[in-house]
Design goal:
The protein is 65% helix and 0% strand. It is mainly alpha-helical and 91 residues long. The protein has a domain of 54 residues. The relative contact order is 0.12.
Length: 91
Amino acid sequence: MVRKSIAVMALVIAAGPAALAQLPPQPPPVASPLSRGTEQEQAACHPDVVKYCQTELAANENDVFGILGCLQRNRQKISRACNTVLTSHGQ
């Protein structure tokens, strides 16, 4: 009985990595929406954030979603550089 249990455990341990190898490759991780972007991206949008998003900055300057929403609401007014940043991130 003990030999049978050991044999079953050995089979499970050996089969585990083989089963994982059968899984399809996973896509790379998506950038977090909470990311503030690169320094260049921040520089491109900073003037627009200061100009159009004072309410969001006053409420919580770390509210990435609030500031993003503000930039989207003001899409027609923001600079071409900031618009390019938003577009490059699928916004």
